[in-house]
Amino acid sequence: MNVSFTQILNTQEKKLAFFQNIVLVAIADRYVDKLESDFLVSVGDQLQLTEKDTLHIADNLKNLKFIIPQDGLQKSLELEMLVKMVLQDGIVEKREYDLCLEYTRQIGFTKEKLDELIAQSKN
Fold this sequence. Notes:
This protein is mostly helical. The chain has seven helices and no strands.
C-alpha cells in the first residue's frame, strides 16, 4: 500500500498540525541550524503551506504542544518525519530525543520503535 504524503495530510488542519509537531522537535535544542531550517521549508513546501499559514505557529513557539493525530498512518508518517528532523544535523540531541520519545508514547508506540526508526534512518 503506497499512500502519499498529501493523501494522508488531506486537510489544512492536518497539514498545520503536522508542521507544528515538526517545528516543536526542530526547536527542542533551542537552535535551528541551516539543515533543519531547510528541512522545515521543504516540508512546508510539500504541504503547500505559505508563510501566512504558519505565522501563528511561529508567533506561539513557547505555547506549542504536540497535536496527536487519530489516524494510524498519519501517526507513523509523523514519527518518521520527526526522526528525520532530529537527524538533520547528524546529532541526536537529548532534548530532541526526549521530545520524540514523548510523541512516540503519546501515539501509543514504544521507545524501542523510536530507537529502531532512528537506527534505520541513520543508514
